[in-house]
Write a structure and sequence with these properties.
Blueprint: E1 2-6, H1 13-20, E2 26-31, H2 35-45, E3 48-50, H3 53-60, E4 64-67, H4 77-84, E5 88-90, H5 98-111, E6 115-117, H6 125-133, E7 141-147, H7 157-176, E8 179-186, E9 195-202, E10 207-213, E11 221-228, E12 231-236, E13 241-246, E14 250-254, H8 259-273, H9 283-302
Parallel strand pairs: 1-2, 1-4, 2-3, 4-5, 5-6, 7-10
Antiparallel strand pairs: 7-11, 8-9, 9-10, 11-12, 12-13, 13-14
Length: 320
């Protein structure tokens, strides 16, 4: 299977490493906003470099495309892949904004194209263990922290929400269900910078609080706690371990699988079988998490509670 990559930076590296270990896959084409980086990666991978994604799809004819650039750099990449009929894996989803994300989701659904989203936290064996535990236990409170130092001058908490914190939002939805209302409190009433606290009310009655920050910090902290009557599930050490605390015992489980390998295997199997419904998270499912992120951004800007249900989807693109 010939694979093309748009984006070969840090976000793409875990997927590239997984694919390089698979004898049934060849990374045949790469492109990146940084042309020199694309040429260097192509030389190392034995691939052909391209100046842009559209030309790469037209000339390389890949069996599948991985898009691994920040959302604001994605532009119309989903449209180009859909027009070319190329299955795609994308991280993060969303494009430049929520309206574009909805249009892209409608486009992929209309094309019946295999597509997958890199919300890898769902693919952890620890997430499956926690989901089984929650089958008999209701979550009363969810507390999440996404406190990560950011490089550069563009320290936008909304951009961080759209590109990274959406992973945490998706995982909380995986455990707690649909979100009914969202209230976001930006630090110093500045929605675009610094830090933000997001309050979530779920249809099940669960409440959640997510804290995220993008200003410089001495260390990274990505954790999630789920609490119920006489028990607590805590994902700690950047999701490498799950601590299960109960009345009479505490159990610590270590992550044993590679979520990136799980995602790649599921996507490639779906491509080979032409079975869009078999991927772990497709674009349509990811849109439900992006709606929560968009509601948080609106809440921070407008200073009010926002329901994801009130966010209207724009009109569909014409069928391909």
């Amino acid at each position: 299977m010939n694979i093309a990559f748009y984006g070969i930076g840090a976000r793409a590296q875990p997927y590239l490493q997984v694919l390089e270990r698979r004898p049934d896959v060849h990374i045949s084409a790469v492109s990146d906003p940084n042309r020199l980086a694309a040429e260097q990666a192509a030389a190392a991978l034995g691939a052909r470099p391209f100046a842009d994604c559209g030309t790469m799809l037209e000339e390389a004819h890949p069996d599948a495309l991985f898009i691994c650039v920040p959302a604001f750099l994605q532009g119309d990449l989903v449209l180009k892949a859909a027009l070319a009929g190329v299955p795609l894996f994308i991280e993060p989803p969303g494009g430049p904004d929520y309206a574009q994300a909805v249009l892209d989701g409608q486009l992929l659904a209309g094309a019946n194209l295999v597509n997958a989203v890199g919300f890898g936290l769902r693919s952890m064996d620890l997430a499956q263990e926690a989901r089984e535990y929650l089958g008999a236990n209701k979550v009363s409170l969810a507390l999440g922290r996404w406190l990560c130092p950011q490089e550069g001058t563009d320290l936008s908490v909304e951009r961080m929400l759209w590109n990274d914190v959406c992973n945490m939002v998706d995982l909380v939805r995986f455990f707690c269900g649909d979100v009914e209302r969202v209230r976001a409190l930006p630090a110093a009433r500045q929605a675009a910078t610094g830090s933000m606290v997001i309050e979530l009310e779920f249809r099940t009655g669960t409440v959640g609080v997510l804290a995220c920050t993008c200003f410089p910090r001495p260390e990274r902290c990505v954790e999630l706690e789920l609490m119920g009557d006489s028990w607590t599930l805590s994902f700690v050490d950047n999701f490498s371990a799950l601590r299960v605390a109960e009345r009479d015992k505490t159990t610590i489980l270590r992550r044993l699988n590679d979520p990136y390998a799980e995602q790649v295997a599921g996507f490639l199997a779906a491509v080979a079988a032409k079975a869009p419904a078999t991927v772990v998270v497709d674009y349509a499912e990811a849109l439900q998490s992006l709606a929560v992120c968009h509601a948080a951004a609106l809440s921070a800007r407008q200073g009010r509670i926002v329901s994801p249900n009130e966010i209207c989807a724009p009109a569909s693109r014409p069928p391909i």
